[in-house]
């Protein structure tokens, strides 16, 4: 496979798994129209009849030859694009309109229809979202032609593009290292940061610019930090690192960050001790307790209750309306409550029985996306669903641009997990379930798990039930206090990018007693310094030797985040010949070996005085 075509497939994989927006909007729009608009219902009945002739349409599409598609693409490429926002909007609307009309004129016009939709795609600010909308709305044979055109456009970029060329992308990092055009290494850790590598100049200018310029706008300036290319890791992946944008003294707050989603640990859900939304500790008798809440949620204030309801609770765990009133138009009255009730009960039972954070966190994340997308459809309603401000204002980057860049490790997803969630969504709004497929869900869950921080204040707790899972299946959050002391977990857009060090220069703090993360400098920082935090408890406990403490932290890192730490402290401590081998945790070449090696290392039997086992460490050594 050529490198350009592999990039193309990456583009489509990403387009297929990250964007939920178009689908939500479509499901809401469709449902709303179905319930409120007689014309729309009549049109639907007609469409159903027309669907009978779809088979012959598909056959006709198959007769469109690649040369015809190429010729059509060359024609579009020769057309100059509008430049002003207003002109683009006009062009977009006219192109979609023409596409729709041509679709209605039969198979003979499919190529022309696809061409029109393709024109619209060239100027649309969120082409990925638009592709998702097309997938749901454009007749399949026409959609296929649009996809073929995109594929061709990316794999055969024009020699000299007519539109303004996208910013040339440097192929070397700050340190002058080559960037890696495609991801290598085992599939157990992956990332949609391949977006950064989809850079054929001239093709899809809007897509290219969005990809390349993201880190000019993220993080927002008020966060006082910026994202840079870090060193290549063992798999040839260029990691991102965070640098300080100004000097900080120890104890300074570098930034404060609200979570995209935060949840209480499962054993605390329903106890009435902490706010379900902001995770604040609640004095006895002071909690707001809604009736008939599936998770026995409690809130510290009306404000938290309302935000939680709008952002995910109503959709997932209650029979309240979950759409903005302007869009609701009687969904609840429409009588799907019984189905909602059954679906929610089954999902809540599943979550409670597993006792794990990731399914609830992933579901709340889905709920939050739905809330954002539906709020966008009603001007003025966005306030409660809105995201914390982590991208600079004045551009159109949103949640998807961010989420698709986060790294993740492919998680285990139980058979029922997605099915039960989908049933909850379908019962709430028919069609909404199509926004969450298995692949998407696994990716979101992986991103939650891999990037979550443990939330812990006031020294944390010591009553968290110990996990009975195998070490490799235990949930791990980033926290210098230890996952066992946390009360909950949160996903933080900027903090997700921080790298680990066993002697970090910053620490996450939750000193206001909520899920708001304060990043505090723990050593003096100069503008341009990389900021690091500790992902694990790096202290030496009373019952362990220095060597045991070091092994514990390094094993945690290998198990949870699949890397062998080579921070200054580790390198300094690992200076004897015998323990130098401890650097090799099996990470890098084959991560399936991490657990076996980590287990032996934890027991102190990893480095017997015999040659390395050919099957374990030896293969993993560089
Ligand atoms: C959740 S991601 C952090 C995001 C990271 N900054 C990036 O963009 O790649 C965690 C991953 O970052 C890498 N990482 C973090 N700290 C590291 C360190 N000190 N040495 C090597 N790799 C590290 C590891 O691959 C780890 O699995």
TrEMBL record:
GO molecular function: mitochondrion targeting sequence binding; protein transmembrane transporter activity
Compositionally biased intervals (Low complexity): 161-192
Topology term for the membrane: Single-pass membrane protein
Highest taxon above the source species: Eukaryota
SUPFAM superfamilies: Mitochondrial import receptor subunit Tom20, SET domain
InterPro entries per record: MAS20 (IPR002056), SET_dom (IPR001214), SET_dom_sf (IPR046341), Tom20_dom_sf (IPR023392)
Domain SET: 223-536
Biased composition (Polar residues): 193-205
GO cellular component, one term: mitochondrial outer membrane translocase complex
PROSITE patterns recorded: SET (PS50280)
Compartment(s): Mitochondrion outer membrane
Coiled-coil portions: none
Transmembrane regions listed in the UniProt entry: 12-32
Region annotated Disordered, chain positions: 155-205, 460-485, 590-622
Compositional bias segments (type: Basic and acidic residues): 460-478, 590-602
An individual GO BP term: tRNA import into mitochondrion
Keywords recorded for this protein, A-Z: Membrane, Mitochondrion, Mitochondrion outer membrane, Protein transport, Transmembrane, Transmembrane helix, Transport
Family of this protein: Belongs to the Tom20 family.
Name of the protein described by the UniProt record: MAS20-domain-containing protein
């Amino acid at each position: 496979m050529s490198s350009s075509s592999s990039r193309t497939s990456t583009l489509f994989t990403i387009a297929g798994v990250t964007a939920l927006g178009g689908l939500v909007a479509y499901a809401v729009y469709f449902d709303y129209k179905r319930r409120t608009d007689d014309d729309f219902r009549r049109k639907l009945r007609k469409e159903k009849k027309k669907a009978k002739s779809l088979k012959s349409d598909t056959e006709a599409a198959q007769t469109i030859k690649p040369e015809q598609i190429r010729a059509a693409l060359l024609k579009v490429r020769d057309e100059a694009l509008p430049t002003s926002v207003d002109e683009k909007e006009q062009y977009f609307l006219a192109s979609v309109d023409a596409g729709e009309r041509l679709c209605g004129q039969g198979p003979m016009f499919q190529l022309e229809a696809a061409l029109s939709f393709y024109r619209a795609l060239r100027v649309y600010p969120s082409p990925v979202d638009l592709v998702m909308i097309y997938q749901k709305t454009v007749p399949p044979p026409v959609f296929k032609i649009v996809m073929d055109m995109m594929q061709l456009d990316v794999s055969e970029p024009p020699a000299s593009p007519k539109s303004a060329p996208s910013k040339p992308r440097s192929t070397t990092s700050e340190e002058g290292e080559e960037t890696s055009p495609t991801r290598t290494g085992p599939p157990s850790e992956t990332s949609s940061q391949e977006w950064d590598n989809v850079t054929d100049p001239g093709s899809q200018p809007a897509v290219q610019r969005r990809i390349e310029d993201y880190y000019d706008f993220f993080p927002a300036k008020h966060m006082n930090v910026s994202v840079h290319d870090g060193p290549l890791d063992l798999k040839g992946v260029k990691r991102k690192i965070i640098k300080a944008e100004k000097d900080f003294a120890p104890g300074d707050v570098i930034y404060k960050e609200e979570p995209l989603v935060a949840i209480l640990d499962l054993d605390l859900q329903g106890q009435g001790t902490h706010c379900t939304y902001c995770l604040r500790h609640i004095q006895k008798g002071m909690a707001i307790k809604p009736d008939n809440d599936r998770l026995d949620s409690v809130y510290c204030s009306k404000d938290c209750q309302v935000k939680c309801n709008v952002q995910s609770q109503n959709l997932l765990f209650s029979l309240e309306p979950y759409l903005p009133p302007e869009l609701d138009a009687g969904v609840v009255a429409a009588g799907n409550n019984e189905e909602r009730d059954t679906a929610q009960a089954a999902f809540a039972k599943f979550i409670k029985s597993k006792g794990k954070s990731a399914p609830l966190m992933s579901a709340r994340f889905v709920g939050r996306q739905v809330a954002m997308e539906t709020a966008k459809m009603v001007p003025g309603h966005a306030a409660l669903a809105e995201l914390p401000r982590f991208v600079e204002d004045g551009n159109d980057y949103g949640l998807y641009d961010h989420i698709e860049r986060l790294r993740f490790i492919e998680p285990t997803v139980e058979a029922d997990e997605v099915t039960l969630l989908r049933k909850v969504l379908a019962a709430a709004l028919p069609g909404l379930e199509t926004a969450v497929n298995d692949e998407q869900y696994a990716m979101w869950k992986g991103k939650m798990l891999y990037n979550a921080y443990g939330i812990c204040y006031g020294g944390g707790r010591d009553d968290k039930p110990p996990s009975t899972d195998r070490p490799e299946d235990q949930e791990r959050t980033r926290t210098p206090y230890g996952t066992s002391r946390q009360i909950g977990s949160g996903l933080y857009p900027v903090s997700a990018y921080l790298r680990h060090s066993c002697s970090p220069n910053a620490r996450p703090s939750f000193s206001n007693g909520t899920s708001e993360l304060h990043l505090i400098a723990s050593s003096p920082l100069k503008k341009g310094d990389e900021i690091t935090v500790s992902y694990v408890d790096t202290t030496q406990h009373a019952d362990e030797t220095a060597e045991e403490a070091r092994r514990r932290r390094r094993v945690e890192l290998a198990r949870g985040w699949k890397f062998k730490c080579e921070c200054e402290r580790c390198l300094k401590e690992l200076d004897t010949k015998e323990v130098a081998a401890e650097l090799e945790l099996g990470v890098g070449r084959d991560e399936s070996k991490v657990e076996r090696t980590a287990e032996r290392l934890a027991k102190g039997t990893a480095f017997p005085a015999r040659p390395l086992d050919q099957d374990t460490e030896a293969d993993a050594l560089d």
